[in-house]
Each structure stands twice: as structure tokens, then as C-alpha cells.
Amino acid sequence: MRVVTEELITDVKKLIIERLKLEEIAVDDIDTDAPLFGEGLGLDSIDALELVIGLEKEYGVSIPDAEVGRKVFQSVRTIAQYIIDNQGKEVAAADGAP
Amino acid sequence: MQGGVALCFPGQLNKIPEGVAGSSGGGNHLPHPFFEKAWEKAGFDFSSFFFQQEEEDRHLNLKLQVASFLLSMVSFDRYRRKGGRWDFITEHSMGIYAALVAAEAVTFEDGLKITKGIGLILEQAGEKNPGGLAAVIGLESEEIKRICSDVNGDLYVANVNGSRQFVLSGDAASVERGIELSLKRGAVSAQRLTFFTPLHSPLLEPITEDVRKFIMGFDIRPPQTPLVSHWSGKHLSEPDEIREFLAEQLHRPVDWEGCVQYLLSQGVTCFIEMNSHDALTKLIRWIDRDVRAFSYGVHDVV
Fold first, then answer.
1. ipTM above 0.95, yes or no
2. Is the CB of residue A72 less than 8 Å away from at least one CB of chain B?
3. Which of B73, B108, B88, B99 is nearest to B225 (CA)?
4. Which residues in B lie closer than 8 A to residue A46 (C-beta atoms)?
């Protein structure tokens, strides 16, 4: 089973910074386990859509609805975990793999 | 060639801004004469977030609208004093009142009175026929239209803010149903905004005459800077045109995406939001990822 690596955590932080154009924030400024919405980085639903698109483009994982989104976007770590758990899933299903 | 600069005046705040107002109560004096004027001319105390008149104070929307107007004006004043330049002034929804002042079509005092007066007309309309707005993020235009027709009631598209950012407006029950359907059909987010009238929908047509009469009493001059409206970028140039816009826009939808596209086509390369938040900035980021957009804020003041 694949696990969340520090490299993936850094890549997710880079994706957030790039997608949301957070010019004044560096990778090290983002706490891996802090909430992304409301408090913490203070992101909102328009930012969430940017992240949904970013995750689709970069990792080929989709967020089907708001409920999943709420769980995935809790923190950088939960996003990384979701990527690990879901990357390649749709391809596998199309191949008829179990 | 230097690119064009558009100053963007956003609509009503959705909540009392944190760290700006209402946190510490009276005595929190904000060093800007506009806040003093709001007290003198409109009986509104920004730092405590209350109206002197009790019948006005019970309306949260009215307070948010006047507060939005003030924050935009302070942001603009700060920008102007520092020698900032601009080529266009544009607005979103209720941001028109501050935009009119910035474009020198009305005085600050009249802008304040217009904001409050129209705000009160809207509150009364909302009390008679409660409605609301909901922001739906993530669904595309076709789906949004389907949701409006699938809801068995009065539900309309009030704002086209981007290709996947919309605001729905309607009677209270239809808005709730619209949120439910949007979430079921995969919206990233669908939530009520702090608004109790069906703004930018045909349900508000009945107040058009009242607004028209109210506006008659104000001296409106041609704008000194090109004023580009949220009606897909239509210019507002003549006083009568502005009066008509103020009355009509309340029951007609906002096309912010069209407005931004128009400004881009006119050579605008920098959008500066005039307020304490960055709602329009984020919408512009979606419409064109490469254009410069930021919120100027009110930091020097508060």
C-alpha cells in the first residue's frame, strides 16, 4: 500500500500556492495539518473549486461532490491521502480490474 | 504600451468583517473622516456596527451595505491619495454606489444616502416577500439553468460570476430547494448568502418605481472616468442612464464575467479591488489566470 510521502506533501502545498496565486506564501508557511478553510489559510468555496480543478489536472483524481470535498480539503495531509487512495482508480475501473 | 487599470467596486459584504468592525464596540475610532460622516449623515456607527435609529438597526443587510460602501470609499481614498492611477471604474451588484462616487458622478454624501435609501426599500420588499440568494460554485451554466427550471417555484440566475460560479435568487423556499438540488448534482459548494430579498431577480420588479422616485431627488453628473457596469460591460455615461440603471439593476441579473471579458478586450491588464476583502479578485483569477488582480484593502486605516 502506498503511503503519503513528504515529497507529496510538498507538491500539494506547491499546487495550492500555484493554483490560488498565493504569491506571499511559501511552502514552509503552510502547516500540513492545519485547517485550510475558515481559519488557517482562510480559503473559501471559490478556492475550493480551484483546488478541485488542480487535483484533476495534476493527479487525475476527482472530487465528486461537496461532501467528499469537505472531507478531502480538511488539511494538506488529507488532500495527499486522498490522492494516494484514489489515483489511478478510474483507469483501473475502465480496465475491468477488481 | 502601459496596460489599463480597472478599479473594481464589489457588492455587499456577506458578514461583518473580522478585525474591522463590531468586535470591540464603541470607542474603537477609525481614523478616517468617512466614518465620522457616516455617523453624522446616516446615523451609522461603523466601529460598533449599529444604526442610531432602532428601526434601521434591526436590518443586518442594511448595515452590511452601508459598511461595504464605506470600506470601498476608504480603500479608494487611500489609493487616490497615494497617487494611484486608473483608466476604468467598474462595479459588481451593490458596488455601483461607491463606484458612482469614485467616478465623480455623485458626491460621497449622496452616495451614502443612496446606499442607505435603496437598502431600506430592499429591506421593506424583503419583509413583504421573503427571499434570498445562494452562491453555487462548481456547476456549469446549463446545469444551473436546469436547476432553476426543475425547482417548482421562483428561482432565477442572479449573477454570472464565472463559467462555474453563479448566484441564484428567488423566494425563500425555492432558494433552499435550489441549494439542495445543486449539492445533489455535484456542486463544490452551494450556500445561502446574507440577503433576505430576491435581489437581481424579476421578483423585485414591483419596487422599480419606488427606486426611480427616490433617485429623482439626487444630483447625478456624467462620470469623469469611464464607468463600466456589471451589465456585461455596458458603459454608464449619462445621468439619465445612471438613474435608469440604479432602478433596473435590482431586478436584472449581474453579468460579471461579461464585464471582466469586456475590460480585458479594452486592454486592461490590472484589476484592483476596492474594499477590505478579495471576492472579486478571486472571480477575476478564474476568468483570466494571467491578468494581475489584487485587493487594495484598508490596512493603513484599521
1. no
2. no
3. B88
4. 137, 165, 282-283, 286
